[in-house]
Amino acid sequence: MTAFVCFLQYLSGFGNEFATEDPRCPGALPDAQNNPQVCPYGLYAEQLSGSAFTCPRPTNKRSWLYRILPSVRHKPFAPLEQGHLTQNWDEVDPDPNQLRWLPFTVPKVSEKKMDFVTGLHTVCGAGDTRTRNGIAVHIYTCNISMLDRCFNNSDGDFLIVPQQGKLLITTEFGKMMVEPNEICVIQQGMRFSVDVFGEARGYILEVYGSHFELPDLGPIGANGLANPRDFLVPVAWYEDRKVPSGYSVINKYQGRLFAAEQDFSPFNVVAWHGNYVPYKYNLEKFMVINCVAFDHADPSIFTVLTAKSTRPGVAIADFVIFPPRWGVADHTFRPPYYHRNCMSEFMGLIKGYYEAKEEGFQPGGASLHSIMTPHGPDSECFEKASGADLKPERVAEGTMAFMFESSFSMAVTKWGLDTCNRLDKNYYKCWEPLKSHFNPNWKPSSK
Description:
By secondary structure, the chain is mainly β.
């Protein structure tokens, strides 16, 4: 495995029309058509549609896969124990408080073996998979690789944010290595398996009914933020492997898990072409926009990907990062401002220290500030920033925090509030030392 990983190759671009074939089978892509009467090498042609046939061309998503056996060849699906993966948003009463979690626990392999699927835990979410309108936030914690089983999500797209441990993700389209400070997106219906190299932990943003896209740049111009050329798509790779003992295809469907058995590997796609693909992105390549005069800009300037709703300018979910950058604003309180938002804000920390709360917000942990719940810098940050010498300085050096921002009012699951036992019950105390600085005798300075 190690030798192969060293030579992983990718195609670059976002939303492109890609075409690739495993070099062991040159000419596997049909010439000038999608489904010939007989495919090269005796392969089966199978289309994977990520949008309705009649969607306008800019939003029409589909790929053609040329495989040794079609995905339809399997035994019937049967219900599967799903652990703490859920879309039951009514397990517990609503909680409008500021919520923060300590780093989520990764079990030792000697204590409990968990692969990527058994290690999925839903923290919060809203909406409904059946009407295909909603969002869920999951944590994954695992310590073993998936063996002779794969996963596909019939409900929506997974945006995966590794925080600890790299992931070797095998998909029907090829292989991707995804490390902390990178992300990947596995779109609806794509089968994949995850290999780990020790204990692994990370975050997942799931969206129903919409796909992630690059945000519009508006007055920024043609370039900036996440550049399309920096997104990487795997090249075709296949295995022609029989599994007489049974290979499990796990399907997340209407929020429940099901498994079907087959006697061969599903990663048997010899060639493919199309624009509906899995992809990855290195967050270090993000071209940061920031204020160069005064005031603290809204965090939307750090949007990497967005899943749009039907309302213009309103997202089902945005994926936003807070990368290393320069702070140069004059006459300005430079940390994030105090805020009440009509959006939900779920934050995680990949590495380093978040500027607004350097002590309690830890890598591998998280926070949720729900719709209209007040939040902002803790008292220590406020006092320090209010008297700081406003010279140019590096902000968030060695740090990468991120936010899943959603227009949905998300409910927290029982696992998130109770079972995980990681909720910081003292979070509210970070604001208690804030004191009044009001001076009714203040006078404006003469100019």
